[in-house]
Amino acid sequence: MTSPRPDEKLLHCPALVATRVIAGKWKTRVLWLLRERPHHFGELKGRLPGVSAKVLAEQLQQLERDGLIQGQAELRGGVSFVLYDYTRYGRTLIPALDALGTWGLEHAAWETGR
């Protein structure tokens, strides 16, 4: 029996799978904002200075494709808005994001204390 090459193991690393889903400059920020409440696209764009509409739309589509959020169209005064919110499955990611955020704060403190 042959053992898998080390790089094959990395391809199937569960931590890598998880980080690929949330990788992207804006994804974790979007997920953080949606913890408060659902947001419309324009609200997200307004609360994320520096993101272009194109990039935000791409990141939202990727989060939807991965089943973390869902967009639901609403009609208000003849204008259609998409309201984004966590899916039930997406909410299972919140504890992991909390743990990652805590680690990030600790790491930042460690870096400044070196």
TrEMBL record:
Domain HTH hxlR-type: 13-112
A Pfam family annotated for this UniProt entry: HxlR
MF annotations from Gene Ontology: DNA binding
Domain of life (superkingdom): Bacteria
This protein's UniProt keywords: DNA-binding, Transcription, Transcription regulation
Cross-referenced PANTHER family: TRANSCRIPTIONAL REGULATOR, TRANSCRIPTIONAL REGULATOR, MARR FAMILY
Protein name stated in the entry: HTH hxlR-type domain-containing protein
Natural source organism: Neogemmobacter tilapiae
